[in-house]
Amino acid sequence: xxxxxxxxxxxxxxxxxxxxxxxxxxxxxxxxxxxxxxxxxxxxxxxxxxxxxxxxxxxxxxxxxxxxxxxxxxxxxxxxxxxxxxxxxxxx
Length: 92
Prior knowledge:
mainly alpha; 4 helices
C-alpha cells in the first residue's frame, strides 16, 4: 500500500460537498498538463444520451427492450418526475 493512501484515513474523513467554483479548478503537477481526462470528458459530453440508428428512429423500449420501429409495446411509461404526480392528477 502506498504511504499517501490509506483506507483508514479515508474512513475517518467526512464527506464534503464541493461548490461549483471548486469544480472548475484543476491541479497541475510538474511542467506538463495531462489532457487525457479533459479530452475524454469532452468526448463523453458530445455523445448522445441514447443511441439511435437514424434521426427518425423510435429506439428501444426501456422496459422490455422491444424495437419500437417494428412494433409497439404495452409497457407503462411514467411521464415526468414522481414528485409531481399529484399535480398531474389535479390537472386532469
